[in-house]
Write a structure and sequence with these properties.
By secondary structure, this protein is α/β, with parallel strands linked by helices. The chain has nine helices and twelve strands. It has two domains: 124 residues, Quinolinate phosphoribosyl transferase, N-terminal domain (Aldehyde Oxidoreductase, domain 3, Alpha-Beta Complex); 107 residues, Alpha-Beta Barrel (TIM Barrel), CATH 3.20.20.70. The strands form three sheets. The chain has a six-stranded parallel β-sheet with strand order 6-11-10-9-8-7. Strands 3-5-1-12 form a four-stranded antiparallel β-sheet, covered by helices on one side. Strands 2-4 form a two-stranded antiparallel sheet. The longest helix is centred in the middle third of the chain and has 31 residues. Belongs to the NadC/ModD family. This is nicotinate-nucleotide diphosphorylase (carboxylating). It comes from Azotobacter beijerinckii. Pathway: Cofactor biosynthesis; NAD(+) biosynthesis; nicotinate D-ribonucleotide from quinolinate: step 1/1.
Length: 282
């Protein structure tokens, strides 16, 4: 599946921000009213730890929706590696708007940068191999496209976006359909032209998926030896995706088996927000 690009997400970004501001500000920022309405201010946002940055457009949209008089000046770009204490961006405009937008803006930036940072770490581990690291649907509800965009900022790639853009036939689907061949045939009938991927648990099921004409075969927790065998046996007839039981210790070895893809829920699921800090200057 193609990777998301920022140009595809303008409506999604605006909607993400509207929900975030409604959740945080609600009927109005009470504490910001302590500051005179006409007071102008500046602010600087730094990262307290090394990171790969993602989410600039979400920050811009936060302040655009709160008060378009706020000017955002970026010192970094999406996908850029930064060291601790790096200035990420500065702000100038009405003090109330800067303070009201702070938390929502930083929430987006710290979360999406966490995804990009995690992805860059894993991409570095397989550098020099042709494998593509793929994300999954294990994303925060309401932020799937944002997180999947952040995945690309970290040098990894997007799997299917949801349940609507590709088939992924797993054990329960196979059982309900009466076998791999029947499931693949039904998929071709339901949505011709959509990618059909089949999850298999052993080499016998791999053979069945290949015979059925699957576009992609997901090797679910196969041993390294079986992955090597699967690559030889498939011989380019389908793309192969390794999944399950993958970690820092075995990722490189799996990449070197010759599989085309490795999918990792950890790219979006097991993340820790990047530590950011904003300081206001009145």
């Amino acid at each position: 599946m193609p990777d998301l690009i920022l140009a595809d997400l303008s409506g999604e970004i605006a909607a993400n921000v509207r929900r975030a501001l409604a959740e945080d500000i609600g009927s109005g920022d009470l504490t910001a009213q302590l500051i005179p309405e006409e007071r102008q201010a500046r602010a600087r946002v730094i990262t307290r730890e090394p990171a790969v940055i993602a989410g600039l457009a979400w920050v811009d949209e936060v302040f655009r929706q709160i008060d378009p008089r706020v000017a955002v000046h970026w010192e970094v770009a999406d996908g850029e590696r930064v060291d601790a204490d790096k200035l990420l961006f500065s702000l100038e405009g009405p003090a109330r708007a800067l303070l009201s937008g702070e938390r929502s803006a930083l929430n987006f930036l710290q979360t999406l940068s966490a995804v990009a940072t995690r992805c860059r770490r894993y991409a570095d581990l397989v550098e020099g191999t042709p494998v593509r690291l793929l994300d999954t649907r294990k994303t925060l509800p309401g932020l799937r496209l944002a997180q999947k965009y952040a995945v690309t900022c970290g040098g990894c790639h997007n799997h299917r976006i949801g349940l609507f853009d590709a088939f992924l036939i797993k054990e329960n689907h196979i059982a309900a359909c009466g076998g791999i061949a029947a499931a693949v045939a039904a998929a071709r009938h339901i949505a011709p032209g959509k990618p059909v991927e089949v999850e298999v648990e052993d080499l016998e099921e791999l053979d069945q998926a290949l015979a059925a004409g699957a576009d992609i075969v997901m090797l679910d927790e196969l041993s390294l030896d079986d992955m090597h065998t699967a690559v030889r046996r498939t011989a380019g007839r389908a793309k192969l995706e390794a999944s399950g039981g993958i970690n820092d210790g075995n990722l490189r070895q799996i990449a070197e088996t010759g599989v085309d893809y490795i999918s990792l829920g950890t790219l979006t699921k097991d993340i820790k927000a990047v530590d950011l800090s904003m300081r206001l200057q009145l």
